[in-house]
Amino acid sequence: MESFGFGKWNLRVFVSGLVALTASTATFSADDSDAKRADVYGKDSVYSFRFVREAGTEGDRWSLADSKRTEMKTTRAAKEIPAARNRSPASYRPKARKKSSTEPQKTEGVTEPAVATVPSDAVPSGSEEDFGFSGGWGGGRSRLASLGVSAGLVYKADWVRAASGGNERKTMYLQNLDVRLLVDVEKLAGFRGLQIYASGTGDWGADRGQKPSGAVGDAQGTSNIETSTDSFRLYEAWAQQNFSDDKVSFLVGIHDLNSEFYVTDSSTLLLNSSFGVGKEFSQSGSGGPSIFPYPTTAARLKVSPAPDFTLQSGAFNAVATDSSRPDQAHYSFSGSDGVLFVTEADYLTGGDRPAKYGVGYWTYSRTFDSLSENVTDAGGGTQSKQVPSSGVYFLWDRAWSRAFSTFARYGIANSLALSVKNDLSVGTLIRGPISARPSDKLGFGITRASTPGSAENAETTYEGSYRAELGRGFALQPDLQFVHRPNFGSSTADALVSTLRVEISF
């Protein structure tokens, strides 16, 4: 048998062959009963591997006999060689844990059940182009990733125009910057199943009066990067330990609730805040729950007893911002703060038409002032009645093909403690709406938030958005929203809002 030396070129070809074989891009043929050949189609070459059967003490085995590479000409036939095809981009089927990969994804895809959702655009991996605008640092990022250390930076800028209606016609400019670091301690130090994640976020524009909700007069928020003040701050910092082959995970630290709870993959393209967390939930708590812009301390347990079922429960500080400084997150925890408990169960299906069906329940351990009921105290005075604050939500997200998916979300809350009693959102996502641009996305959605009382006490927003992926981590996203009855049927006129978002991943 001809020997096969693992020289520099052969080793590279062999590894490339294994990768290509795994990706199902090879064709096989049998020369005879004791020899087989595999032809692997690369981007510019065909790699041929010949294997022969050898007799061994423990039975026959196949060994690599020889290999060769043939350059392909750019012909129609070469272009039509079948390549590995990805499954549906929105596959909800649980996958093996991704250790230190945060490729430029929030965009679509549900994180595997036992792993916390790290923004997919946080830590790029892959080729120089996959790493984003700054590239792979001459191979430095790949070397760091092999050690379990990944870092990323994402910049967003929104040009928002309140074109008609609302409180005023105005053009605004908002900026958001996220810096993220993920450490896979198993790769770095051999501590099995442990991950550490930290991120910082900066927001600018509010201090210069760049607040779209003020100009539009709506309650739900037409830009999901709008804040009440400018700042750069710690956003998340948590450690997660996985157990039982990643079927169980426990997370503790500063954690964004909406990175794992109340998530529908197909709605993440849209910019209105209610497509992230329903208004009936985002209004709750002291300074809001543990979501953007001020996540707080938390502990979360997630279990996946079966491949198609996930159950997760979290305990979050009920006070998200400091009472003396409402523009700062509240990280300390005391008994008087209370606890926000959230539990969500999800049924996941895979295949060519993956789907997610979920139900969640949330409640606070403390009580809040009633908006409509008073009580008389022992001294004869009148004060607000103390009432619980809780709610339930339902999620439905279904892919009908590899390119088309729809979603529906409905949440209802205790109307005695909260001004918004329910929020209903529906919509659709189209991947690759233009055949020549398969990475682009087109989305449409309607979200309706209602207050107690008449059906007229509702704010409804219609949104259409197109995200154009321009390569090297650069994307443009024009967006148009029409707000009917802003602020729940007040005197504010219906508003038309246009946005151009620029996003750069480094």
Summarize the structure in words.
With 506 residues, this protein is mainly beta. It has two domains: 8-79; 137-505, Beta Barrel (Porin), CATH 2.40.160.180. Helices cover 9% and strands 46% of the residues. It has seven helices and 22 strands. It has helices at residues 8-22, 76-79, 140-146, 185-189, 212-216, 279-282, 486-489, and strands spanning 26-32, 35-41, 45-54, 61-71, 149-166, 170-184, 194-204, 231-243, 248-255, 296-306, 309-317, 339-349, 355-364, 368-376, 382-387, 390-399, 404-413, 422-431, 441-450, 458-471, 474-484, 493-505. The protein has a 16-stranded antiparallel beta barrel. A hairpin with a 2-residue loop joins strand 20 and strand 21 (474-484). The protein starts with 7 loop residues before the first helix and ends with a strand. Residues 1-33, 38-47, 56-64, 67-114 and 125-129 have low confidence and may be disordered.
